[in-house]
Amino acid sequence: LPCAYLNTQERSPSGTPLKQFHDVRYSLKLRCPVQYFVVLGKSIFLHFRSIWDKFIKIVSGRFEMCIKSSIC
Question: Which of 27, 47, 33 is nearest to 1 (CA)?
Answer without folding.
Answer: 33
